[in-house]
Amino acid sequence: GAVVSQHPSRVICKSGTSVKIECRSLDFQATTMFWYRQFPKQSLMLMATSNEGSKATYEQGVEKDKFLINHASLTLSTLTVTSAHPEDSSFYICSAGGSVSEQYFGPGTRLTVT
Amino acid sequence: QQQVKQSPQSLIVQKGGISIINCAYENTAFDYFPWYQQFPGKGPALLIAIRPDVSEKKEGRFTISFNKSAKQFSLHIMDSQPGDSATYFCAASARSNYQLIWGAGTKLIIKP
């Protein structure tokens, strides 16, 4: 149980285009999902907290107009990187809250912006 | 006060040995302490977690030791195997929210 999927696993896009990443909780409902960014050999950096049916809460320094988050249902949250630039290249990971204080992570999405 | 300090940054252990990774925290509101294992190019996977009402939790070869008074917790991997080579993250969160505060990670290499 407690499986979280992400799609796509890898994506290459051209500078200036937008990319959408999906995060799904497959066998449980998640009122809260989290989006992280991870740079090579570094820890996870929380970007935003996504609550079903409401606006996401962004961490300080994260541009909400650039990283659009939508949590339309209890099993799906999406992250759209708008007008992507090479500096947005990173490993993006989502997680979904299971029981209190437990999060289950997706396999991550490697974004490369050329 | 929100930080979780993890050490060492990297660790090399011989096959069959014990791997020990340590974490320390300041925020006494933290009440959930998970350890995650991450392989290259993959998301983190929950390995084992502990709450402060117990001092130790064991699952197979993995043990968390928790010292509430010292505000420290550690992961012990017994009989370490090459397949345990990965990056390990400790984390902490408070019951009031889901947000995890992450340690910096430890890259563990098990030498055959």
Descriptive overview:
The complex is a heterodimer of chains A (114) and B (112). By secondary structure, chain A is an all-beta fold. Helices cover 0% and strands 54% of the residues of chain A. The N and C termini of chain A lie far apart (37 Å). Chain B has 112 residues and is mostly beta strands. In chain B, strand 9 (86-94) and strand 10 (101-102) form a beta hairpin. The model of chain B has no long low-confidence stretch (mean pLDDT 94). The A-B interface holds A 4, 6, 32, 34, 41-44, 46, 49, 91, 93, 95, 97, 100-108, 110 and B 31-32, 34, 36, 41-46, 49, 89, 93-95, 98-100, 102-105, 107.
Distance, first to last CA of chain A: 37 Å
Shape of chain A: globular
Overall mean pLDDT score of chain B? 94
The share of residues in helices of chain B is under 10%
The count of β-strands of chain B is 11
**Class by alpha and beta content of chain B:** mainly beta
Most extensive interface, chain pair and sizes: A-B, 24 and 23 residues
Strand content of chain B: over 45%
| Low-confidence runs of chain B | none
Biggest β-sheet description of chain A:
7 strands, mixed
Assign a percent range to the helix content of chain A.
Answer: under 10%
Structural class of chain A: mainly beta
Walk me through the topology.
The complex is a heterodimer of chains A (114) and B (112).
Chain A: E1 4-7, E2 10-13, E3 19-25, E4 32-38, E5 44-51, E6 57-58, E7 67-73, E8 76-81, E9 90-97, E10 103-105, E11 109-113
Parallel strand pairs in A: 2-11
Antiparallel strand pairs in A: 1-3, 3-8, 4-5, 4-9, 5-6, 7-8, 9-10, 9-11
Chain B: E1 4-7, E2 10-14, E3 19-25, E4 30-38, E5 45-50, E6 56-59, E7 62-67, E8 72-77, E9 86-94, E10 101-102, E11 106-111
Parallel strand pairs in B: 2-11
Antiparallel strand pairs in B: 1-3, 3-8, 4-5, 4-9, 6-7, 7-8, 9-10, 9-11
